[in-house]
Amino acid sequence: DVKVTQSSRYLVKRTGEKVFLECVQDMDHENMFWYRQDPGLGLRLIYFSYDVKMKEKGDIPEGYSVSREKKERFSLILESASTNQTSMYLCASTGWSPTDTQYFGPGTRLTVL
Amino acid sequence: DAKTTQPNSMESNEEEPVHLPCNHSTISGTDYIHWYRQLPSQGPEYVIHGLTSNVNNRMASLAIAEDRKSSTLILHRATLRDAAVYYCILSPNNAGNMLTFGGGTRLMVKP
User: Fold this and answer.
1) B8-54, pLDDT tens digit by residue?
2) Which segments of A52-113 are extended strands (E)?
3) Chain B contacts of A96, Cβ < 8 Å?
C-alpha cells in the first residue's frame, strides 16, 4: 500500500513558536505539496517541490517556508506561528505524468493559541 | 488554468445511483479530467480520471461529453461510506503536476 505519512494528526502550539510539520512518502515521487484547508475556502496550495532542494511558492506562501533535503521528505515550517495559521495541513505527493495520482496524507490539525 | 463548476451539494438515497456533474467549458485538448473525493476527517483520495473516452473502475464510472466541456461521475450504488466532498479537477501538464482544487460537491447519502 502506498503511503504518505505526516508527523502528527493533532498539534497545539503557542503564538510565536517555530513549528515543523513533517511529511514522508514511500513512492519515490518527485513532486510533493503542502496545502492548508479551511472551512469555506477549500484546499489552498502553500508550497510545492518538484525535486530535492527545489521549492516553488503556491498560492499562499506568506508566513511559511519549506525544506526538501531528501526525496522522500518534505517539511513545512512556520517560523513564528500565529493564530491565523490555525488550520488543517495536508501533504501530498505525485509523479510527473498528468495521469499520475496525487496521494494525500491524513492531515495535521494545527491549533495556534 | 481551466476552471470547473460543480453544484455545492447533492443528496442521494442509499443503494441508488448518483450522478455528479461537472462543467469545464474552457478545457483544453491536453487537460485530463480527474475526480477526487474527501471523506470526513481524511485527506482527499483519487477516484478516477479520463481524457476523452468514458472510464470505469471499481469505485466509479466517468462519462465525458463528446465536446469534453462537461463530465459526470457515476456512483452505481451509493453507500453511506460514499458521503464525501467530490472534486472535479483538470490537470494541465504543468511543472510539479499540480492540481487546483475548487469547492467540490458535498454528497449526502440518506439511509
Assistant:
1) 999 999 999 999 999 999 998 888 999 999 999 899 999 999 999 99
2) 56-57, 65-70, 73-78, 87-94, 103-104, 108-112
3) 97
Query: What residues in A contact B44, CB-CB < 8 Å?
Result: 43, 90, 92, 102, 104
Q: How sure is the predictor about A78, in pLDDT bands with cuts at 50, 70 and 90?
A: very high
Strand order in the sheet with B70-75: B18-23, B70-75, B61-64, B55-56
Q: Which residues contact B6 (CB under 8 A, 6 or more apart)?
A: B20, B21, B22, B23, B86, B87, B88, B102, B103, B104, B105
Please give the grid coordinates belonging to residue B21.
456533474
Q: Which residues of chain A are within 8 Å of residue B97 when distances are taken between CB atoms? A: 31, 94-98, 100, 102
3-state secondary structure of B32: strand
Q: Report which DSSP code applies to A113.
A: -
**Cross-chain residue pair A48–B36, CB shorter than 8 Å:** no
The C-alpha cell 466517468 sits at B62
